[in-house]
Amino acid sequence: MERYNTDEISKLIRNRRSIFPPQYSGKIVKKEIVEEMLENANWAPTHKLTEPWRFTVFSGEGLKKLADFQAETYKKVSMENDTFNATKYDKLLSKPLLASHIIAIGMKRDEKNIVPEIEEIEAVACAVQNMYLTATAHGIGCYWGSGGITYFEEAKAFFDLGPEDRLLGFMYLGIPKDVTPKSRRNPIKTKVRWVE
Ligand SMILES: Cc1cc2nc3c(=O)[nH]c(=O)nc-3n(C[C@H](O)[C@H](O)[C@H](O)COP(=O)(O)O)c2cc1C
Predict the structure, then answer these.
(1) Residue ranges of the alpha helices (H) in 95-183?
(2) Which residue, by CA, sits nearest to atom 25 of ligand 1?
(3) In the chain, what are the domain boundaries?
(4) Pocket test for ligand 1, best of 13, 18, 88 (most atoms within 8 A of CB)
(5) What is the pLDDT of residues 44-73, one digit of tens each?
(6) Which atom of ligand 1 is nearest to the CA of 168?
């Protein structure tokens, strides 16, 4: 089997950070990079090869369409259940415009349900990590957001998802300003038990 530079790969994995829209410069990410991210997403592991990931990519005028849709959907649903918050509405309307691209992340349920739903969600998460790492390798900022309308039934059709499918959030992309984002993890030894 082919070997790869594990030092580089470990560095890429450990230095990958979520970078948020206020940290984007406003410059546009090259389409070829977005295409490479999507191609790499497509090579995620998938039980029974169901390939459940589905993406809708918004850029340019598309970002405004997404912003309008999510703000109005939020307004409609939250008015109905009396939870409307004007600050949240404004944020849903404005935040997408800070991004270069936004990739809506969907999970398409296999018609025959040949694998449990959780495995399809897991496969999509692997696909998203492939995008995260590809973006990082190119110096592109991104983050997976699961707020707003992510779990609204009313949102699914806009992303070509049916009732059995799931919207899992949005990957925001942008060229970072000069930022050095930090994160932290508890030591791996606190989460592993070796049985030898
Ligand atoms: C499934 C999932 C959903 C997430 N949703 C949000 C979100 O809604 N808002 C947010 O600020 N970050 C979200 N994040 C990103 C996390 O905040 C981020 O991964 C965490 O802070 C660790 O930072 P790092 O990615 O730079 O290591 C999400 C991450 C995952 C995996």
Answers:
(1) 117-137
(2) 18
(3) 6-190
(4) 18
(5) 999 999 999 999 999 999 999 999 999 999
(6) 1
